[in-house]
Amino acid sequence: MSKAIPILNNPPSPAPAPDFEKMPADVRRVWQALAEVNDPEYPVSLVDMGLIYGVQKQGARVTVDLTLTAMGCPCMDMIFEDIRQRLLQEDDIEEVEINLVWDPPWTRDRLSEKAIEQFRKWGISV
User: Is residue 29 part of a domain?
Assistant: First the structure.
């Protein structure tokens, strides 16, 4: 006798967007710059993918806490370089440190509403 496999019809709830209003202006600009960096596999920003876990800015130094969708992500070096290149375009940033973090693990629940809509347009189930 086979068991029925449940089908999940409920789409994930989008992750809450960073609260830009409560951020200092210089940190907000870093988040906005990161929103211009797309995942190499899909034209969706790293922010909308929910891959950016945190940003700190101390003087001309920025630290980005980043996760990936999978531990063996073949695009890791490309993502790191894209982040560095974009942030170093800002006049007040001279150094970028990227911390790769795995806790909490990334899940599709971290996708923003914008990312969910984009994936649906391409016929990708999320």
Answer: yes
pTM, two decimal places: 0.81
Cβ 12 vs Cβ 111: under 8 Å: yes
Kindly give the parts of the chain with pLDDT less than 70.
Answer: 1-18, 20
Nearest to 36 by CA among 46, 49, 24: 46
Distances (CA, A) of 110 to 26, 47, 48: 24, 9, 8
Counting the structural domains of the chain, the total is 1
- Residues in CB range of 104: below 8 A, 6 or more apart: none
C-alpha span between 47 and 32 (Å, rounded): 9
- Is 126 within the bounds of a domain? no
Residues spanned by the domain of 47:
24-121
